[in-house]
Structure formats: C-alpha cells, structure tokens
Amino acid sequence: MERLISSLEPDLVRMCNAHLEACRQAGIALVVYCTRRSEKEQALEYVKGRQFSELPKSVSNLIADEIRLWEASGARSGPGSVVTHCHGPECPHVLGIAYDCVPVCEGKAIWKDETLWEKLGALGESVGLEWGGRWPHFPDRPHFQRKRN
Ligand SMILES: [Zn+2]
After folding, report:
1. How close is the Cα of 15 to the center of ligand 1, in Å?
2. Are 8 and 35 in contact (CB under 8 A)?
3. Can you tell me the distance from the alpha carbon of 57 to that of 120, in angstroms, rounded to the nearest whole number?
4. Residue ranges of the chain assigned to CATH 3.30.1380.10
C-alpha cells in the first residue's frame, strides 16, 4: 500500500500538501498513511468484514489466492469489519485522488478525539477537498478526496 503523497494525481499532491500545511499552522501534526492503491489492494480492503460468497467476481478473482488461504483456515469472510464500500478501477484511492491520514501526538496516532477530527476535516475542506467525515451513512474520518462534480 502506497503512502507517498507524490503517488497521487498532481492536483491532489497540491491539496494534500496545502492540507498538511494548514494543519501544521493550526498546531496539528498529520501523518498520511495511505494514498494510491492498486485494484488488488482495494479488493483486499473491500473483502474485510464481507462473506467470500457475496463478493463480486471482479473482486474475488483479484484476491483468489488470499481467499483460498483464509478458507483453508476455516474463514468464510474477510478479517475484521467493513471498511469500504468501494471496489474496482473507479475507486478514488485506485485513481490516486484520495488519501487517508491521522493526527499524531508524540508519535502516537489519535483516533478518537472528535474535536481534533472536526478541525482537521474543516481544514481539508478549506483547501478544496471532500472530507469522508461528512458522509452520513459511512463516515470515514481519515479519508480526503477530490470533490465529485
Ligand atoms: Zn480512504
């Protein structure tokens, strides 16, 4: 999984850097931990928390080896709970127009500070990004992406 900002599309590189700088000025240190994903990497995210039998063929074909291994150890679904509703070549991470980030303090990721997320989400929006934290049905606070038209 790629975490280099430079792997993103040029407009996203600019917006991501502007977001990091705006956060820095507000005293928030951000770490970008995921940028571009291959379709297979996205499929490995999509399978989390889902039954293998319910996966679209396009997903299960990409990760057939992984599924075989999981099934061999008795699993019928991907590990953990659902983390994404997106699969295939049109996913923002696959297109290189999205990144995931988390605020850090003294080297530790701060996942559960509501106020902090609100601040850094708004700062992302202020540089022109769409923030996953606003999604009503599946809020994804670490996620920022190019605005959809
Ligand atoms: Zn994301």
Report:
1. 15
2. yes
3. 37
4. 1-36+98-149
Read off the tokens for 78: 């991907």
CA distance 125 to 28: 15
- Block means of pLDDT (10 residues each) for the chain, 149 residues, are 94 98 97 97 97 97 97 96 94 97 96 97 98 95 93
Position 149 scores a pLDDT of 74
Tokens standing for residue 65: 């080896």
Q: How far apart are CA 131 and CA 142, in angstroms?
A: 8
Query: Two tokens at 89?
Result: 């070549």
Would you say 94 and 45 are in contact if contact means Cβ atoms under 8 Å apart? no
CATH 1.20.1250.20 fits 1-36+98-149, yes or no: no
Please answer whether residues 5 and 140 qualify as being in contact, where contact means their C-beta atoms are separated by less than 8 angstroms. no
User: How many residues are recorded in the chain?
Assistant: 149
Dihedral angle over CA of 44, 124, 16, 5, nearest 10: -20
**Spacing, Cα 64 to ligand 1 middle (Å):** 23
Using the mean position of ligand 1's atoms as its centre, give its distance from the Cα of residue 93 in Å: 6
Structure tokens at 24: 């820095």
